[in-house]
Amino acid sequence: MILFYAAGASSQAPHILLREAGLPFALERVDLAVHRWSGGDYHEVNAKNYVPALLLDGGDLLTECAVILQWIADQAPDLHLLSQPGTPARYHALEWLNFIATELHKNFITPERHGGVSANFLSKTRAGQEQTRIHVSPRLGWVDQQLDGRDYIAGDHITAPDAYLFTMLTWARRLEIDLAEWPNLSRFSARMADRPAVAEALSIEGPPHALIERQ
Length: 215
Known about the structure:
215 residues, globular, Glutaredoxin, 8% strand, alpha+beta, Glutathione S-transferase Yfyf (Class Pi), Chain A, domain 2, 7 helices, four-stranded mixed β-sheet, 6 strands
């Protein structure tokens, strides 16, 4: 099994969850600026040209972060990274995955890409970064309210949505959005960062590309 990733991209979430699940996997880093990986043209792997993509041992390729997270969780049922199918808890966790994908992830992605796929998925301009803050801040505030009195967002232990939310919070920090405004989110981020699987994933990926602000 191979996870195609870029440092600091949304692929960080399945990277974290793979380590939480203890599944065997290999990593292949993708240079999104030129769409290349160690095997050549990334477009030949994933025609969407973005990460994450998870190549399964049988040859199937999974894309889309929320779907990959579900697949990973289902491979380690004893860890309860997602509740059993058919249960209300399962669908509440899927609510979270969809909320993070549509209300946070997509609102972080800069319109400066003009529909293209590049390494600069976060805005590099002051005006663009301010627009991102305007869009994501109310949503982060809502998540902060849901975390009141809770350590994790979909249960009393880590589940798939937590890995996704943590990754989005790293994007917030890169845009200098101060999480101190939302104490529950701030505590959640620190709690996640202390997990060995998270620390290992961040260490292996290394720093993401720099955001150089322009007028």
